[in-house]
Each structure stands twice: as structure tokens, then as C-alpha cells.
Amino acid sequence: MSSHGATGVPVLFKGVGSGKFINSRSCLGSLQVFEVNAVNIRIPGCTRSLASESSQRSSSRRQTRKEVSKVEDPFDAPTYNIPEKPVTFTEGASYSILILAGLGVAAAAGYAVFKELIFEPKEYKIFGKALERVQNDSQVRVRIGSPITGYGQESRNRAARQRIPNRVWTDEDGNEHVEVNFYILGPHGAGKVGAEMFKDSVDKKWKFMYLIVEIRSPSPAQLLLESYVPA
């Protein structure tokens, strides 16, 4: 370290361990005098300024790193930090009612299907008996051919074809009657069938009141296959 004079004289200072010299003139000639062990040491005023600036830059870099570290990617936030809203008693009761209602609808649909498959409706039972009687009749087979199929309505809609028009009632003697009307189709022609059966209150068997087949093609004809004659 070397110095000349107190003001305006170039003074060179060598930083410890840095190998660099600082010209006091670049510090605008300002020197600060310190006494250490009865020796006056002159230090340029810019030394403090440079140290202060270096400290401020270090602090600024640390603050920037802290700010950067505090910024989190919202897409990386774990979902378990989302607080769960507690379910109130009213909401729980509403959910229970909805679940019970759904189970009720499913049970009703299941029962309807079960009843449809296991407990065959009366009109379908009478339709089956009448169609079987028509299919086994030689007069009908000669006119429209065989095999013979039956269906409820002349429509391309499958549900309409499966729906059998019917009428159910009970007579004055307590006998249940079922009347059905349906169409028949064979390889060579088609026709319409009208039938009525009643359930005998004595032997509990279904018996024909009448069974009429109206042949419409290829040539019109009307056939009476069954007619009830009281014993």
C-alpha cells in the first residue's frame, strides 16, 4: 500500500489477497484517516462505498432467490391441500332420499320384468292358446300355408306388434272372460283372428267361447274353429 499526501494526490491501494490496485483519484480524491496503533492510515472514501454496494447487491440477489423460491407452480399444488367441505345433516338426508328413490325405481322395474316373465298376463296366455289352435288347424294351413306366426298390430314397430289388443271382464256368475284380437301370417297368405275364453269356476280351466279366423289373402274366407256349447 502506498500514499502521497492527504488530498488530490494519487494514492494506490492494494487489496489484500485480490492482486488489484485502486486509484484514489477515481474516488474523487476523498480520503478517510484512521489511527491504528499511533499510525495514521488513509483509506479512500470509495472503499466503503464499494463494500456497501457489494453488500447491497448480495442482499438483492438473496432477496430475488427468496422471491423466486416462493413462486409455486399452481399445477403442481397437491390436491390434498384442498379443504373438504363438511357434509351437513340436511345434505346427508337428501342423498339418502335420492338413493332410496333410485332403489325403489329399480325394484319396481325389476318386479315388472319378473311379473312379465314369470306371471304371464291373461291376454298373452289366451293369445298363446288361440294361436296354437290356429296353427294346428288344417283348414287354415291349406289357405295360408305353414308355419303361421301371430302378432298384435300391423305395424313395423316391434312393441306395437307385441301388444295384443284385449278386453277382460267378469260375468254375473263370477267367471272371468278374456277377449283378444290379433293377426296371423303364413307363407301364402294372411288373416285376422278373434277369440274369447273364460275360466270355468268349477274346474278352473280356460275354455273357448268362440274362435273365428278371417282369411284375407290369398282368397277371403271365414272359419269358425271353436264355439262354446254349455253342457
TrEMBL record:
It is found in: Mitochondrion inner membrane; Mitochondrion membrane. Residues 52-77 are annotated as: Disordered. It is a single-pass membrane protein. The keyword Repeat does not apply. Coiled coil: none annotated. Keywords: Membrane, Mitochondrion, Mitochondrion inner membrane, Protein transport, Transit peptide, Translocation, Transmembrane, Transmembrane helix, Transport. InterPro entries: Tim21 (IPR013261), Tim21_IMS_sf (IPR038552). Pfam families: TIM21. The chain crosses the membrane at residues 93-114. Component of the TIM23 complex. Essential component of the TIM23 complex, a complex that mediates the translocation of transit peptide-containing proteins across the mitochondrial inner membrane. Belongs to the TIM21 family. PANTHER family: MITOCHONDRIAL IMPORT INNER MEMBRANE TRANSLOCASE SUBUNIT TIM21. This is Mitochondrial import inner membrane translocase subunit Tim21. It comes from Penstemon davidsonii.
